[in-house]
Amino acid sequence: MLKSKTFVKKTRAGGVMKIVREHYLRDDIWCGSEACRECKQESTVLQADACIESNLCPYPHYVVPDTNVVLHQIDVLEDPVIRNVIILQTVLQEVRHRSAPVYKRLKDMIQAKEKLVYTFTNEHHRETYIEREQGESANDRNDRAIRVAVKWYSQHLKADGLKVVLLTDDQGNKEKAEENSLVVYKFDEYVKNLTANPELVDRLALSKDDKAEIISSKVLFPEHLPLSKIQSGIKSGTFLQGTFKASRDNYLEATVFVQGDGAESTEVLIQGLQNLNRAVHQDVVAVQLLPRNQWVSPSSVVLQDDGAAKDDDMDEDEEEKALRISAAEAAGKPTGKIVGIIKRNWRPFCGMLNVSQIKESTRHLFTPADRRIPRIRIETRQASTLVGQRIMVAIDGWPKNSRYPNGHFVRSLGSAGEKGTEEAVLLLEHDVPHQAFSQNVLSFLPKMPWGITPEDMVKRQDLRHLTVCSVDPPGCTDIDDALHCRELENGNLEVGVHIADVSHFIRPGNALDKEAANRGTTVYLCGKRIDMVPELLSSNLCSLRSNVERLAFSCIWEMNHNAEILKTQFTKSVINSKASLTYAEAQMRIDDTNKKDDITESLRGLNKLAKILKRKRIENGALTLSSLEVRFHIDSETHDPIDLQTKELMETNSMVEEFMLLANISVAQKIYDEFPDCALLRKHPAPPPSNYDILLKAAKSMNVEIHTDSAKALADSLDVAKVDGFSYFNTLLRILATRCMMQAVYFCSGMDSDFHHYGLASPIYTHFTSPIRRYADIIVHRLLAVAIGADITYPDLMDKHKQSALCNNLNYRHKMSQYAQRASVAFHTQLFFKSRGILNEEGFVLFVRKNAIIVLIPKFGLEGTVFFDSKDKAGPSLVFDEEGPTLKVEQTTFHIFDKVKVTISLDDSNIQHQKIRMALTEPVIPGVSVAAPDVEPQAKKPKVDH
Amino acid sequence: MAGLELLSDQGYRLDGRKATELRKVQARMGVFAQADGSAYLEQGNTKALAVVYGPHEIRGARSRALHDRAIINCQYSMATFSTAERKRRPHGDRKSTEMSLHLKQTFEAAVLTQLYPRSQIDIYVKILQSDGGNYSVCVNAATLAVIDAGIPMRDYVCACTVGFVDETSLADLCYAEESGGVSSLALALLPRGGQIALVQMDARLHQDHLDTLIEAAMTACKGVSKVLDQVVRQHLQEGSTLRE
Ligand SMILES: [Zn+2]
């Protein structure tokens, strides 16, 4: 079997262990070229006529990039112009070890058919394998392996009139290749001579020589320690390893999260450019703690790095000093400095160009949309066209003598401020997969016209005769739940929750399933929905619309009139909904005493039971918290927001919610009983007591006492919290309480022991009721289907590690979709205020900061910051008292819950960060507050009262 | 970085083999003159020596004797120098005892023990160097030693360790693959009749994959049997030329 293969042993010494591995060499590895007549390959990847418009290489040729070219120039390599590429196994392996994101992109590139990328397994080819020589470093050996492979290729394809071009940025490697008479070019040299796409040049990452020009000789930052030193330092405890999180409000401050043993983790504060030492948000870093007497506390000052490019002389000294003074006031937190980077986590960033003041300059600063990312210096010749556009930029490196990291232009997203562009930005920045579904994914959709077949009916109950109806917000097209309620002959009530049977259509492991698993959730933006599953399913076949037959997964209870469950049954079913109602329509039917039809009776039964269920739940200590949800009335033609209102809750909202909660709890218990090791559940941890500090302080300032010992105590004390003549107080308090909570997360039951859902006061919980828009529900459906014998299992479903990994992705996607949603609301709020001019509105102080107060406007559900200091002029005297917390501005003291009046306007001075600006009108503080605007709504500039 | 990539997109394994390819197998029979039968076998970097004594009278407690067939006594051990870290206890530990038991069961299924009532056959196997698939290599070496001893068997017993990764079955795992998180399964087969002498598996594997994995293991065992057959034939040829 292996006769044709000679066989060498490869010895690797690692640590003290000597590992001996076999390494087989083969001669059945083919070259992948269409032109070759020697190799006995079945299919080929590389074209015989491999031409690219180039001044340098006008002949047909294949290119072989070396590892560093792949790592740093992937943006260029990905361009469709570059085709007929050979990736050597040596390169692939090195990339895999050095950068996971680039490796992923490289693999995608190899898989894309039209890119014509061939992977050559040179390490196992008899003629291209080489052994490491004495005294040769691993890198040198790999470079040599690449050269040997290129040499083999050039000779192999010589007769066929094809050349092979090695691309490298390493001068030494290039010289050696030339000695071996290979065709070799520097990567930028090759790209600059491509006539096919001159714009590519901008995407080139800076090579080492270019970098030297840009940066001054002055060393600004301490050297990063090499990885070996970092590792020994971490082992000995001198350094800590953690994830670097830059502050959103203060570019000179960051925190490093150090994961301790077990669940314990500590935070280390980093302040000042020198200590931050070129770490970028999300990098994995090594920190060294400073001596205790240098510990500081996080400042509440807001600092933004703006203005012109600072030319490498640190004129931030003043800002840093301000920081230190303010920080020295309080007792310090553990503070440290970054000594080295363990792993960079750079991705392409969205943002805008600040064009250099010098007209001819090709070097410009790029300001990322994410405030936690530093500004990046890039080189481009198209600055004039890029002005006012949202662009993407990737970081190439951050030398120790450069104030800013260096990067290169990747692509443009469109004009800033335009809805399409801004949406693209917020989807990209929140890592929301939003491309159209691929043909491969769509191929797994059912063929139309679709109908229910007799095979579908096996293992399904026919519930088409039941009076089922759905109740949803207006305009909802992805209806995933429907309900029914009827009286049984024995006097008890039968209540059914019917959920779209998505797992019938999405079978495990196919491309459609994988895509949905990766997306994790449908993302709802204002006026736009990014579906988790293709529209045919989400808005048609799975949507439980009225008067059509739909497949469902039903949870049916027998209850007595006290809403006590007597019997629970789960079954796959077929239903035919009799009505798709809105919350308001359902409410009207219930309230209209003349209506006596089946649907209305069913709704009344449900409503009655829901009220009992809710009461019981609250008695058990479930929390009802508030967050003001805002929705826009969007003009159907221009898609601009025309009105904005906070969501109004009706009885029917809570009616539907109550039964969904009940179904989720019933299902959670069932799948956990059946699969104690691999049930997908959802938990909500109790917040640590310190989270409640702000709530307690705020309540105390109004002489109200809040108990936080348990969810029940909190719920009860929130219920009685009232202040005379201040009807909004309770809502505000609940908003504050919401901010104290932890995030609810999905987890796999085999990997955790704490299942408690704090907010719902339920010992177990999961998500079952929205499989059209949440992937977790699809998994829960599959588990439940197996538990009742309606479907079969598959390997990944029973694997707790794989499920745990899936949960991590789902948690990440959910968090990101929430952020994206908030960002979208913020953007539409801005559009709304742009058309309104300046408004004068009443609001409440929600938080007090050192130099600002945060005000909530109930009318719009809008939160904004009123700053009291400004850069250009001397600010008023500010006295901050952390105990209150209160802020005294001149003679006026602000407390939490104070009623104020503010003007609201859109500040578009910075087009990238357009924001809602609030300025105080009441109480009047001379020199600080502004006059209320005239009634005329189109006034543009606020008049400042001096 | 995530561990090792056990199977590349191009279909090559860590050591350059394709999924169904075995390691190189080399063997010699009759390496010791004193024993009744012996064999040395290398499967890649795993090397084993097997020695057979018997059939002979029962040693020790006579009560163990079976009136209708021979008992098979197996002892498995590992040389102290067989692994990267020196082994403290070459035999008698729990793992070796278990392995001895598995070998015994395998050969009870293959050897025609009813031909030798009230007697005993001893099989000693020692791993000299370990690089994955110890059980399989032992079985293969012992088969050759039993044949060398002239003890009749139903068929060769051939064994192979297979694993499952990325929806693909890998034949004849090496140590790096065994320790790289693959669900592995060892199977001993009497290839001509297709009877399974022993299947052993510790890892978790979904039922759906079991059939494909056993199928792959059987194919691999048949591959091994071809190589063993050649070794035996060659040995016989050498023997006959010597005698002439
Ligand atoms: Zn060829």
From TrEMBL, chain A:
This is Exosome complex exonuclease RRP44. GO terms for biological process: CUT catabolic process; nuclear mRNA surveillance of mRNA 3'-end processing; rRNA catabolic process; rRNA processing. InterPro entries: Dis3_CSD2 (IPR041505), NA-bd_OB-fold (IPR012340), PIN-like_dom_sf (IPR029060), PIN_dom (IPR002716), RNase_II/R (IPR001900), RNase_II/R_CS (IPR022966), RNR_Ribonuclease (IPR050180), Rrp44_CSD1 (IPR033771). PROSITE patterns: RIBONUCLEASE_II. GO terms for cellular component: cytoplasmic exosome (RNase complex); nuclear exosome (RNase complex); nucleolus; nucleoplasm. Pfam families: OB_Dis3, PIN_4, RNB, Rrp44_CSD1, Rrp44_S1. Component of the RNA exosome complex; within the complex interacts with EXOSC4, EXOSC7 and EXOSC9 of the exosome core complex (Exo-9). The catalytically inactive RNA exosome core complex (Exo-9) associates with the catalytic subunit EXOSC10/RRP6. Exo-9 may associate with DIS3 to form the nucleolar exosome complex, or DIS3L to form the cytoplasmic exosome complex. Exo-9 is formed by a hexameric base ring consisting of the heterodimers EXOSC4-EXOSC9, EXOSC5-EXOSC8 and EXOSC6-EXOSC7, and a cap ring consisting of EXOSC1, EXOSC2 and EXOSC3; DIS3 associates with the base ring of Exo-9. The gene is DIS3. It comes from Oryzias latipes. Its cofactor is Mg(2+); Mn(2+). One of its GO terms (molecular function) is endonuclease activity. SUPFAM superfamilies: Nucleic acid-binding proteins (SSF50249), PIN domain-like (SSF88723). It is found in: Cytoplasm; Nucleus, Nucleolus; Nucleus, Nucleoplasm. CDD domains: PIN_Rrp44-like (cd09862). Keywords: Acetylation, Cytoplasm, Endonuclease, Exonuclease, Exosome, Hydrolase, Magnesium, Manganese, Nuclease, Nucleus, Phosphoprotein, RNA-binding, rRNA processing. Residues 61-175 form the PIN domain. Residues 460-790 form the RNB domain. Transmembrane segments: none annotated. Gene3D superfamilies: 2.40.50.690, 2.40.50.700, 5'-nuclease, Nucleic acid-binding proteins. Its main location: cytoplasm. Belongs to the RNR ribonuclease family.
TrEMBL record, chain B:
CDD domains: RNase_PH_RRP41. This is Exosome complex component RRP41. Keywords: Acetylation, Cytoplasm, Exosome, Nucleus, RNA-binding, rRNA processing. Component of the RNA exosome core complex (Exo-9), composed of EXOSC1, EXOSC2, EXOSC3, EXOSC4, EXOSC5, EXOSC6, EXOSC7, EXOSC8 and EXOSC9; within the complex interacts with EXOSC2, EXOSC7 and EXOSC9. The catalytically inactive RNA exosome core complex (Exo-9) associates with the catalytic subunit EXOSC10/RRP6. Exo-9 may associate with DIS3 to form the nucleolar exosome complex, or DIS3L to form the cytoplasmic exosome complex. It is found in: Cytoplasm; Nucleus, Nucleolus; Nucleus, Nucleoplasm. Residues 21-152, 155-219 form the Exoribonuclease phosphorolytic domain. Belongs to the RNase PH family. One of its GO terms (biological process) is rRNA catabolic process. GO terms for cellular component: cytoplasmic exosome (RNase complex); nuclear exosome (RNase complex); nucleolus; nucleoplasm. The keyword Phosphoprotein does not apply. It comes from Oryzias latipes (Japanese rice fish). One of its GO terms (molecular function) is RNA binding. Coiled coil: none annotated.
